[in-house]
C-alpha cells in the first residue's frame, strides 16, 4: 500500500491503531517459489502457473502483491472463506484484510466505497439483487481491464450469467456482456432432512406437505420450516414454490416487457401451498423466523425437514453445533406443476474503479488464485461452497460431500429470478406482503395484488414498459 493512506481507509490497515476494525491477515514475506515478472503483471498480462510442491500443485503463484481489503457478508459460508484466505496468506505472504459485515450493512458500505474519492476496499462482495445498480453506474472495473483478455476458467459456474453486463441491453447476460465479477459462491436452496425421520425425501410439494404433517410431533419435532420473517429471506424462500408453479415476477425482462405477473393464478397457487406447509408444519412463530432460526431448528434435531441455502450445510455437520451430524441429508428441491424451481442467490466479487491500478491487480491476483482447482478444494473442505464443476463432481462421490449431488441438481434448474435493476426494491415489497400473508394480516390474493401494484409503480418510476395482470379475486 502507499505510505500515505486515504482518509477513508477502513480501520485495521497497516499503521492504524490495532484492534479497531477489519482484521488483517499477514505473514512475514518470503521469497516466492517461482519469481513472477511483476512488470508483466502490472501491464495486465496473464498470471503464470508455478512449479509448486505436490501439496499445492494447482495453486497459482501470484507473486508479491499489494495488501488488499475485502468487504464481505458475515454469512453461513463465511468460515470457509476465512479459512481459504488464511491459506492464501500462508502460501503467498500477501496481506489480506476482511471486513465481515452483517448482511444488512454490506450494501451501504459498498455504496459509500464507490462514491468516495478512493475506495477503502479492493474487493466488494455484492449480492445478486444489488449488483446491477453498480453495473449501471459504471463504478466497477470490467475484469479484462485489469488483466487483458481475462475469462473465467471453463469449469467455473456462471450462476445464471449474472457476472456479465451488457450495457446496451441494460441486462446481465453473457451475450455481448463484459465480465464484471467472479463467484465466491453460487448459492441455491436444498431440502435438508433427517434420514432417521424421513425415509424418502418428497419429490413434489404435495408430497412435502403430506410428509411434514406425518413426521411432526409438535412441539418436540416440527415437520418443516423455512424463513418467514419480514426480510428478503421470505421472498427468496417462497421463490422455489413460485418458480415450480410456473410463476414469475415480470413477463420478459430481457426483452424489455416489465408487465408485473406476480399476481397470476400460478403465483397464487404457489403462495397457498407455501402457506399451507408453513402453517401446518413450522413453529407457531414462523412469521418471525430468520435464517439462523431455521438452521438452529435442524441442527438441534427439532425439525424433520428445512429449506435452507446450501451455504448453511457446514452448520449441520459440525459436531460442536449439531445434534444431527450422523443423520442429516440433502435432497433436490421438490417439483411443482411446472417442474423444479430454483432461484440462484449468488454473490459477486467485484473490483471498484476508484482504486489505484496496483490494488486492482492485487485484487485480481487473489480472485484468480481463489478460482483454481486446489483453492476450491480447500474452500470446500473448510465448509465453503465450491464454484467449479470439476470440484463438485469429484467431491460428490465422497460420503461426507454427498449433499453436492443435490446441489448440482438444483444448479441445473437455477435461474436469476430478480435479474433487473429494481430487484432490491421488488424484494422489499415482496418481503412485506408475503409476511403479511403468512401471519394473517392479508389474504394470499390481497398480498399478491398489493405487491403487483407496488411493483408496477417501481417500474413506472424507472421508465419501464410495465402494467399488471387483472387483479385476483380477494
CATH domain fold name of the largest domain: D-Maltodextrin-Binding Protein, domain 2
Domain module tally:
2
Strand-pairing-aware structural class: alpha/beta
Catalogue the unreliable spans.
Answer: 1-21, 28-57
Which percent range fits the helix content? 25-40%
What is the CATH class of the largest domain? Answer: Alpha Beta
Shape: globular
Radius of gyration: 23 Å
Question: What distance lies between the first and last C-alpha atoms, to the nearest angstrom?
Answer: 61 Å
Count of discrete alpha- or pi-helical segments spanning 4 or more residues: 16
CATH superfamily descriptor of the largest domain: Periplasmic binding protein-like II
Strand content: 5-15%
Strand order of the largest sheet: 1-3-2-4-15
Q: Mean of the pLDDT scores?
A: 89
Organism: Rhodovulum sulfidophilum
Biased composition (Pro residues): 8-17
Pfam family, one: SBP_bac_1
Family: Belongs to the bacterial solute-binding protein 1 family.
Amino acid at each position: 500500500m502507499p505510505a500515505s493512506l486515504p482518509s477513508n481507509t477502513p480501520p485495521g490497515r497497516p499503521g492504524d491503531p490495532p484492534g479497531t476494525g477489519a482484521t488483517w491477515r499477514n505473514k512475514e514475506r518470503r521469497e516466492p517459489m517461482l519469481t513472477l515478472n511483476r512488470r508483466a503483471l502490472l501491464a495486465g498480462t496473464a498470471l503464470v502457473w508455478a512449479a509448486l510442491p505436490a501439496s499445492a500443485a494447482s495453486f497459482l503463484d501470484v507473486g508479491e502483491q499489494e495488501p488488499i481489503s475485502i468487504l464481505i457478508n458475515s454469512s453461513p459460508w463465511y468460515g470457509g472463506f476465512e479459512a481459504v484466505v488464511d491459506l492464501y496468506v500462508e502460501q503467498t505472504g500477501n496481506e489480506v484484510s476482511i471486513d465481515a459485515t452483517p448482511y444488512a450493512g454490506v450494501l451501504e458500505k459498498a455504496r459509500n466505497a464507490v462514491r468516495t474519492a478512493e475506495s477503502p476496499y479492493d474487493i466488494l462482495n455484492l449480492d445478486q439483487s444489488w449488483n446491477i445498480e453498480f453495473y449501471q453506474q459504471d463504478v466497477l472495473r470490467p475484469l479484462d481491464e485489469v488483466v487483458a483478455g481475462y475469462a473465467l476458467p471453463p469449469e467455473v459456474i456462471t450462476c445464471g450469467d449474472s457476472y456479465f453486463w451488457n450495457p446496451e441491453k441494460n441486462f446481465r447476460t453473457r451475450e455481448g456482456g463484459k465480465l464484471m465479477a467472479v463467484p465466491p459462491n453460487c448459492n441455491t436452496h436444498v431440502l435438508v432432512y433427517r434420514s432417521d425421520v424421513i425415509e424418502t425425501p418428497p419429490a413434489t410439494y404435495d408430497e412435502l406437505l403430506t410428509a411434514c404433517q406425518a413426521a411432526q410431533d409438535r412441539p418436540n419435532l416440527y415437520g418443516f420450516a423455512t424463513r418467514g420473517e419480514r426480510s428478503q429471506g421470505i421472498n427468496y424462500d417462497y421463490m422455489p414454490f413460485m418458480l415450480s408453479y410456473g410463476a414469475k415476477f415480470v413477463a420478459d425482462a430481457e426483452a424489455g416487457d416489465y408487465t408485473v405477473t406476480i399476481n397470476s393464478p400460478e403465483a397464487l397457487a404457489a403462495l397457498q401451498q407455501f402457506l399451507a406447509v408453513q402453517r401446518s408444519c413450522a413453529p407457531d412463530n414462523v412469521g418471525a423466523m430468520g435464517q439462523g432460526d431455521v438452521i438452529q431448528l435442524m441442527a438441534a434435531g427439532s425439525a424433520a425437514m428445512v429449506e435452507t441455502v446450501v451455504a448453511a450445510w457446514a452448520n449441520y455437520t459440525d459436531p460442536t453445533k449439531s445434534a444431527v451430524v450422523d443423520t442429516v441429508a440433502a435432497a433436490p428441491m421438490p417439483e411443482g406443476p411446472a417442474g423444479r424451481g430454483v432461484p440462484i442467490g449468488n454473490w459477486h466479487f467485484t473490483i471498484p474503479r476508484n482504486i489505484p491500478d496496483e490494488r486492482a491487480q492485487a485484487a485480481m491476483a487473489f480472485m484468480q488464485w481463489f478460482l483454481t482447482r486446489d483453492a476450491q478444494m480447500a474452500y470446500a473442505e473448510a465448509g465453503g461452497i465450491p464454484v467449479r464443476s470439476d470440484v463438485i463432481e469429484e467431491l460428490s462421490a465422497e460420503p461426507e460431500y454427498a449433499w453436492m449431488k443435490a446441489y448440482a441438481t438444483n444448479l441445473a434448474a437455477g435461474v436469476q429470478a430478480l435479474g433487473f435493476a429494481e430487484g432490491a426494491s421488488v424484494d422489499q415489497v415482496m418481503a412485506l406482503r408475503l409476511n403479511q400473508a403468512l401471519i394473517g394480516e392479508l389474504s394470499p390474493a390481497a398480498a399478491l395484488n398489493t405487491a403487483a401494484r407496488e411493483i408496477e409503480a417501481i417500474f413506472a418510476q424507472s421508465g419501464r414498459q410495465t402494467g399488471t395482470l387483472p387483479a385476483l379475486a380477494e
